[in-house]
């Protein structure tokens, strides 16, 4: 019994050690906008073992507003960590890595900056010069697209999930609305924090389809849910980090950053790709990813349910199966 | 030539006289909430001639944020005014009829209050005790549903168009978000007015489907369009009238106001009905109207395009044809 308990504790502590948040200081980091972030820090978590050939690493950066902590139960169940070395990374600006909330005079950043900082983490700190795969969900999918054009030879495979290579009219309308709601609150930090209450409901209006809400929620609970969502956002989401990541997303356009047209992409992109979109996504419009997948030779999976942007949760079995088969 | 000119001027002035905005003072109006609006005024416009039997009147109240002026080119082309006497009415709270913007201490109102004030206008001022039809779009459709249960014997026919008998979870989420954005601005009237800038984009995110925006707009024009929509809303929409009408919509539930269940409606409702919904409506959720049309014996038309709540514009030919055949 004692031995069993010891084994359990040992295994649990191993898992904890793997789970545990690590920080890498990548030094002076120069942004695309020409500013420098001194002592730029990236937070990350690793799972599994890097093999001797260093050929089994998968990078999985965070979604908008997300932390590597949130990815554990998600990416963690999607990737076989007995086989792969999984690196979850907190994207710049998310409040865990260097961000407006923890760094004075934090400059505007782009999705390419997120990618470049992750490149520095891998090559300088983890001494990994090649990835087996890069993948991510939502803003993690945007980073995946950007990785493909920033470092086309760096990965074997890439899986952008409900991400986009380029922001559409509707994406801009949504992100600018959330941003403006915070700015409307003025300069007072408490007022800006409180504006996250309204950002919460705008965000939720677009996270899933109306059909999903009608199917899963009762009208009489709406007011309590609105209150709760607001409370959660005010507590958990810093408005300056929110704007920072929105600005990064708004800047995204792989055709601009690469100087390559869609027609030139099949030649330019080296990795094998699996593109996963949610056809009813009201948060990250799927059209640009669909257009991309039509021209570039990729595996392609559509999530068609009423969950919209939340389809990776609602249709997680389909996602896991497709990812597993592709990897 | 002079005679022709005279005839033209005569006809044009007749049209103008019909078009012209009239005001009726319906006196002390008691709201469902127990408050009184003194000298309550309803604005309206009439087209065509009331026949001797007073059997050809059609009432068409305004949509949310709309004025009878906006209905002229809409209802005006939908209804044959050589045959029908069309009455466009500015719903209470819309800024033309008695509203927060023109009446001190204007109380909260409900959709039923809008209906009761229109009933008073018809019976007391226009001496019309029976309608051939009541119809309306969006909040005008909500008023149509409410009319059916408030005065079941008052009309021969009723056409709610992209309206709803009852607010869903998603409707509440949307209207409460717009309301909260104004409240977030605090008590300063200029700040509340300026909050309409953010209300504009939240509204637009839900007016049509993402597909519609992707199809009709260019991403590079998004920022200018957001600015323009904000300018328009700040200029044209009073925040207190906006909240007043939102509160009215949020209160709407014909099952509550009538005390009748959906199963009891076929017995209770006397008018012949044509229910028109937009299946992809992200502003007024169509589910409640669909459920209603399944149980109550109505004619039923679905608008299925990507315009969402704007379908009555995009699919106006289909609407006109259905309305014309039904009337």
What report would you give on this structure?
Two copies of one chain form a homodimer. In chain A, α2 links the parallel β5 and β6. The first copy, chain A, has 14 helices and ten strands. In chain A, 51% of the residues are buried. About 4% of the residues of chain A have low confidence. In chain A, 48% of the residues lie in helices and 16% in strands. Chain A is α/β, with parallel strands linked by helices. In chain A, α6 crosses α8. An eight-stranded mixed sheet of chain A has the order 1-4-6-5-7-8-9-10, with helices on both faces. Chain A has a two-stranded antiparallel sheet with strand order 2-3.
Note poorly predicted spans of chain A: 4-16
- Number-wise, the strands of chain A total 10
N→C terminal distance of chain A:
40 Å
Computed CA radius of gyration of chain A, to the nearest angstrom:
20 Å
What's the main sheet of chain A like?
A: 8 strands, mixed
Helical stretch tally of chain A = 14
Helix content of chain A: 40-55%
Largest interface: A-B, 39 and 39 residues
Structural class label of chain A: alpha/beta
Instruction: Let me know the average pLDDT of chain A.
Output: 94
> H/E order of the elements of chain A?
HEEEEEHEHEHEHHHHHHHEHEHH
Question: How large a portion of the residues of chain A is in β-strands, by DSSP E?
Answer: 15-25%
Could you state the oligomeric state of the chains shown? homodimer
General form of chain A: globular
Strand order of the largest sheet of chain A: 1-4-6-5-7-8-9-10
